[in-house]
Amino acid sequence: MFFQQLLNGITLGAAYALIALGYTMVYGIITLINFAHGEIFMVGAFVGLALTYIVKANIFISLLGAMLACMVLGIVVERVAYRPLRRSSRLSALISAIGVSIFLATLVQLIRGPQTTNYPAGIIANTVYNFASIQVSKLQLVMIVVSALLMLGLQLIVKYTKIGKAMRATAQDYDAASLMGININRVISFTFALGSALAAAGGVLVGIYFNAVGPFMGLSAGLKAFAAAVLGGIGSIPGAMLGGILLGLAEISAIAAGKSSYTDAIAFSILFLVLLIKPTGLLGRPIQKKV
Amino acid sequence: MLGKRKKWTALVVLSLFLLSFVAGCGGGATSQSSGEEIKIGFLGALTGEVASYGINTLKGMKLAEEEINAAGGVLGKKIRIIEADNRGDKGEIANVTQKFITKDKVAAIIGDPTTGGTKVAAQIAQPNKTVLLSAGAVGAGVVEIGDYIFRNTLLDSVAAPAVVKYLKENMGWNKVAIVTSKNNDYSVGQTKVFKQALAENGVEVVTEEFIQDKDTNFSGQVTNIKAKNPDGIVFTGYYTEGGLFMAEAHKQGLDVDMVGGDGLLSDVLMKLGGQGVEGSMVFAGFSPEQPDEATKKFIEAYKAKHNGEEPDMFVAQGYDAVKIIAAAIEKAGSADPTVFKDALAKTKDFPGVSGNTTFRENREPVKSPISLLVVKDGKFRLLAKIPVEAE
Question: ipTM exceeding 0.85?
Fold first, then answer.
C-alpha cells in the first residue's frame, strides 16, 4: 500500500509540476505572477474535450490541439492584459491577471454551463499492470511519461536553442538584454506560449485522469501549482518540477495517514513556511541586489 | 490631455452606475402592482456546482404555478414565482433572500435545496416574518431557527436507520467504509446520522475517509478503503464527487457498491461515474416508478412540457412545495405569512407526488414510504420501497 500511495502521489505531482512550470517561467522572465495561468489550464482541458468529442480525435491529437490553442490564448492574454501594463506598477498587472482569470472562467461557464463534465470513457483503456504488489494503470503511465517528456523538451528548448538563450538572458537582466538587441516582446510572447502549452497538456491529462472538467477547475489547481512553484523556487524550472512532485507526495501522504481534510491546508502551509524560512525556495537563485 | 481622459473615464463610470440604478428601479416598479398576485420566491442555484438541484426545483415549481393559475389561482389571485440565481454561494443566498423579502414582498420563499443554504436564508426569513419552506434541506438545525421555517423532504434521520436495516438484512452488509465531504453541511450531518444507525444495527465501520466538495483526486482515499476490504461504501456527499469517487474506485479495481442520500440523485452521477456507479444505491422521497395516479399525471404533464425528460426528486418536491403553500393560503383565507403559517403547520397527510406529507409539532415532515433506487445500465431504477412509521 505504501508504494501504491507513492505512485498516486507522483501522478498527482506530475500534474502540479506541469502547471507550475508556466508560473515559474513567466515569473522568471518578467517577475509577474500570471494568475490567469490556472484558467489557461482549464481552457486546455475544454479544448481537448471538444476535440475528442467533435473531431473524435485520438488522445495525442487532442493533446496537441489543446496545446496549440492555448499557446495562442497565452499570447493573446499577454498582449491584451499584461503588455500595456508592463511599465505600470506591479499591482496593476496582478489585478489585470485576476481579471483575466475571472473572465476566462465565466466565459467558459457561459458557453459550456456550470456542470462538471468528463472525457468519454475508454479514451485511454483502463488496463492495469501488476508489478509485485503495486498496480499501475495505463493512464498513470501515460500521465507520468507524457509529463516527463514535456519537461525534458522544455529543458532542451531553454538550454540549447537560440530563443532559449534569449529567454535566459532576459530573465537575468531585462534591460541589458534589450540593449544587446534581443527582441524582448518576442521572448515574452514565446514564454507565455510555452507555459500555456504545458498548462494545456496538464489540463487534458488531469481532465482524463480525474475524469472531471469544469469551468472552475483552474482556480484550485492554479493555486496549488503556484504553491509548488514557490516551494521549488519561483523562477527555477527544475524547482517547479521538484516542487510539484513534492507537493503531490505531501498531499497523498496526508490522505494515506487518514488526514485527508488537511490536503489544502498542506499546500498553503508549505507556501507560507517556504516564504518565511527560505523565500527563494528549494532550488531558487538568490535575489540579486542591484546596486 | 491626461485631465481630459480622466474626465471621460469618470463620466463613463458614472453613467454605468446610473444605468444600473435605473435598471434596478425599473424592475421594482413593475412588481409593485402586487394586489393581483401572490408572489412566491424561488431560492436556489441556477448556475454553479449545485445548479442541477435548483434548476429542477424551479421547473417543478413552475409546473405547479401553471396548474394552479389555470384552475383559477388561489383566493382568486394568480400565483407568481419570482426567480433569482444564488449560485450556491452563501453570500448571494443572503442577498437574494433579503431582496425577496424587502423588494418583492413575497408571501413565501421556497428553497434553498441545500441544507447549508437553507440555514443562511432561514436566519433572515425568521425575523422578517416570511415563511420559508425548504424543498430539499435534510440536515439538522433547520426548523429550530423559528416558527416560520418549514421543510418538505425526506429526512436523513428518518431514512438512514431504515436503509441501514435493509442493507444489513437484504444485502448482507456487515462492514462499511464511510466517506464524508468535510466542507459540506449536508454530508457532515448525514454521516452523523448514518454512524448512529450503523452502530444500532451492529454494522462495523472499518474506515472513515474525508474529501472536500470540488476535489477531483480521490486516489489516496480509494487506496485506503481498498486495504480495509469493506462490503460497501456509505457516501454522504453530492453527485459530482460521488461519481468521481466511484470512477476512481473502479479504476483501482475496488469492486463494492456505495449507498447515499438524495445528494447523489442526479444523472450527472452516472455521467461521471460510468461503470463505477453501477449498483450504487440512493434513497429518496420520490421515484418516477411510483404507480400512484396523481404521480402518473404529474409525470406526464412534466414530460409533455420538457420534451420527454423524466422528473426527478427535486422537480417533485418543488412542485409539492408550491401546492402545499397554496393549500395553506386557501385554508387560512389570507396570503399574509403571519396568518397562513399556522394553517401550513397543520398540514396533515397532504397527498403530494413525492410522498404523503404531515408536519409534526416542530414543523419537520414525516414522509412515507422511502424509495431505494439502484443504478442499473446507467439509469436509476426502483429497488425497494421501505415504509416508515410516523410516531
Answer: no
